[in-house]
């Protein structure tokens, strides 16, 4: 009897997978989520167009084919102004585009009643290095996203989008403004993707030169504490029918909240870049900067980094925030070099001059002098570690949009 029940259960599971409508062509990273598992806020109103699993389920229920899903995504990705029109005007534009592409007309009203764009730009602050955006979610909460402008010597322009994965953050890193908010809420994968779409539309409608070439999970929140939604959003970022970025153009930044999830990312999306915010290779010093570090040792982190390096075929990337008199001593340089030289493959260290925040002010934190930063850099390189000072991370200070400064102070 038990074997019969087990067989029936397996059969039903196979049937569900066989008939589940999923846009697989052009997909670089497969969904790891069970059907209907995506996070959504409990609220009235439409679901997001960027809730990929919900769209796929809806398509299956309405007897659509894979090419119909491609049509939906084509229309969704090329529509929606950052100067948001009324819901009625928005639906009319989408309806006209769907009809022009021979989408099944009987399904259009139902699609547009069930799905829509759910996030809105409420505030923009221009800065030297780009712009910071206050984005309102469907549930009324806010996050901040940053558009970072890069200009090459030949004049070519490209952009990086820095996205948030949580409203606030639970880690309470002593130097980070976001940590003062505490954790207010988790973002769905759709809300993460809508941030990118909004900034993409901003670049388009403002006729700015260049395109978005990179996405970094370095905004509000600890991405690995919202792993399922982050992973599903990476599926959309890299999908050729959506944003179409290569996986190596996506970076997930973590303070090392979970060695297990670092390894999971290596298994499930090995080409996605991982950036570990280390900030000190002395355990006691690291715990002062990152209180949550008490739950994970440097040895465990090193093991997880080595696992990721083997799976990805690349080395490890470390982020190191330099704070005057806190983690810029010679002992800190020596410990960092020792940690790096033990790792699997090459290690790249991004040295980030501390950006002033109210959180850091509570501890008297200050940015080291340029001379001290250069000296730390030189000692690290002399020890055989590849490192670069990211002076550009200071861009955005004038809009409180630099590393560690996101805290929603600009939202009214």
UniProtKB/TrEMBL annotation:
Highest taxon of source: Eukaryota
CDD domains in UniProt: Radical_SAM
Primary site of residence: cytoplasm
Domain Radical SAM core: 155-398
Annotated organism of origin: Cyclotella cryptica
GO molecular function: 4 iron, 4 sulfur cluster binding; metal ion binding; methyltransferase activity
Biological processes per GO annotation: methylation
Known cofactor(s): [4Fe-4S] cluster
Xref: Gene3D superfamilies: Aldolase class I
Cellular location(s): Cytoplasm
Protein name (Swiss-Prot/TrEMBL): Radical SAM core domain-containing protein
InterPro entries: Aldolase_TIM (IPR013785), Methyltransferase_A (IPR040072), rRNA_lsu_MTrfase_RlmN/Cfr (IPR004383), rSAM (IPR007197), rSAM_sf (IPR058240)
GO cellular component assignments: cytoplasm
Signal peptide extent: 1-20
Keyword set includes ATP-binding: no
Nucleus recorded as keyword: no
Record keywords: 4Fe-4S, Cytoplasm, Iron, Iron-sulfur, Metal-binding, Methyltransferase, S-adenosyl-L-methionine, Signal, Transferase
